[in-house]
Amino acid sequence: xxxxxxxxxKETLVTNVxxxxxxxxxxxxxxxxxxxxxxxxEYVESDVYYPKRYKIRPRVYFIIIKTEAAxxxxxxxxxxxxxxxxxxxxxxxxxxxxRLNDDLFGWYEGEIxxxxxxxxxxxxxxxxxxxxxxxxxxxxxxxxxxxxxVDYLRQRVDSRSQFPSVKGKNFKFHYLGMCK
Length: 180
Hints:
With 180 residues, this protein is an alpha+beta fold. It is 28% helix and 33% strand. The protein has 2 domains: 2-91, no CATH class; 97-177. The protein is built from 6 helices and 7 strands. Residues 84-93 have low confidence and may be disordered.
């Protein structure tokens, strides 16, 4: 695994943590010290594949990204994204996302957390309140279940209420089967 490092317009692709620390030490503004060096080594040795940002001063960072790319050109053209194959990327998808469009007629239980506009008694002003709504409905897929719930709510709550994305964490559904 290689490491991509960038600080403003200075960037490099290195093959090991020692080269990364040498690159960071060559930039005087970063101020390489033993604590930062230990943190970089810990990040590189960990199983975390998310990019890591290090704060130098307010609104100034450098970034480290783990990559399978052999050259800078491969990295820039995203040819060696971690996880490589399409099969492994599909396994990373949340189960709800992969089942959302499955065509399976029957009863679904959908749960949606949305921002509902309500009037505050006494002041007459309006505010958003987090509201959970659970319903059972007949549908052909999880997506249709979401659409039916949102259509139902739009007819019954203030039009300024905000509904989450069907793909977000604020909508969940379960297939209950053919009979209720």
